[in-house]
Amino acid sequence: MILKSQVEWALHCCAILAGLPEGRYLSTKALAELHGLPKEYLSKALQSLSQAALVDTTLGPSGGYRLARSSSEINFLDIVEAVEGKARSFTCTNIRENNPCRPAGYCDSKPCAVARIMWEADEAWRDTLRRVRLSDLVGILSEEVRPDLWQSTFEWVLKRAG
Amino acid sequence: MILKSQVEWALHCCAILAGLPEGRYLSTKALAELHGLPKEYLSKALQSLSQAALVDTTLGPSGGYRLARSSSEINFLDIVEAVEGKARSFTCTNIRENNPCRPAGYCDSKPCAVARIMWEADEAWRDTLRRVRLSDLVGILSEEVRPDLWQSTFEWVLKRAG
DNA sequence: GGAATTAAGGATATAGAATATCCGCAAAAC
DNA sequence: GTTTTGCGGATATTCTATATCCTTAATTCC
Ligand code: SF4
Ligand code: SF4
């Protein structure tokens, strides 16, 4: 059970977009260069964010991406689910139906305990991600990243933001 | 991010093993028939349980598997990790190292905030699974499964337990 | 208006993981 | 000694993640 690397990419890109001045856009090309990622493939992750309405886009030179809402109104789960999908990690294949002792026509009223417990754990994972806002991440990064690196990155981004 | 179906298989098999009388064993063949699963592949899941020391095995006719500990001393996480591995679901590829603004020789003191938050969610998932004991599952199932099915399954298993 | 740049989406190729089967070995039962 | 069993290795198949390429339409700038 491993998350796609696109999840990491999307989270980092959103953190960068959160630092953009009002109304500016940043292109896939810039985001790919900044993170050292394949531009074409990163583009797929950004398209996922776009489809989830987390970011706004615009075309043409000086086009690119910006957050669709304030960074305090976007949480980790929004981003992770946009890329990874909303499906639960445990999928029930209903193997209890294969029990040879099962009476013909027997119909289970509800999902069995195994599935419910696994889904509960899944929900705990989602809850944790839901509680962390993108703005929280930016706050932590701004404290932890070395100030000179933080500032030079910021300048690098602004130079390329349309 | 989807768990292997072997996780479901292992959980169901453990629930069955928990109902075995003291000292009896149940074979892969019986477990595969009971759940309608491919015997050879289910065997791999059971081998994982064995390697994790969750079950004891014995060879020969009347051989098979039994729990290595009481069902109240085995939790869901034990079983899930035995099959799925203990690796975290979020793997950090350290893309921040590709930042072109990064000073040469800069070395990060600790994993960045993105990774820590994702790992925190992972830990919440594990915590939930850790809190549920195998005996809890058996308790729920014994209440929810129709009594006649529960009993006939029990008899079916006993007939094949060595 | 025309050239350049961009996001979007479809098609396709590659790598790796999950799923599944088969075989040979050693231990245990009879 | 024969059968049954768990175990591990080897292999095949299917599916997903990863990655690239190409076309289209919108936008900017000249
Ligand atoms: S997880 Fe529950 S519902 Fe799904 S197959 Fe197993 S017993 Fe049935
Ligand atoms: S998750 Fe954190 S440590 Fe990992 S690459 Fe991203 S910034 Fe770096």
Automatic annotation (TrEMBL), chains A, B:
Instruction: Drop me one GO molecular function for this one.
Output: DNA-binding transcription factor activity
User: What SUPFAM superfamilies does the record tag this protein with?
Assistant: Winged helix' DNA-binding domain (SSF46785)
Which interval of the chain is the signal sequence?
none
Lineage: superkingdom: Bacteria
Q: Name one Pfam family in it.
A: Rrf2
Under the heading InterPro entries, the entry gives:
Tscrpt_reg_Rrf2, WH-like_DNA-bd_sf, WH_DNA-bd_sf
- Gene Ontology cellular-component annotations: cytosol
Q: Which PROSITE patterns match?
A: HTH_RRF2_2 (PS51197)
Entries under PANTHER family matching the protein: TRANSCRIPTIONAL REGULATOR-RELATED, WINGED HELIX-TURN-HELIX TRANSCRIPTIONAL REGULATOR, RRF2 FAMILY
Name of protein = Rrf2 family transcriptional regulator
Tell me which species this is from: Rhizobium chutanense
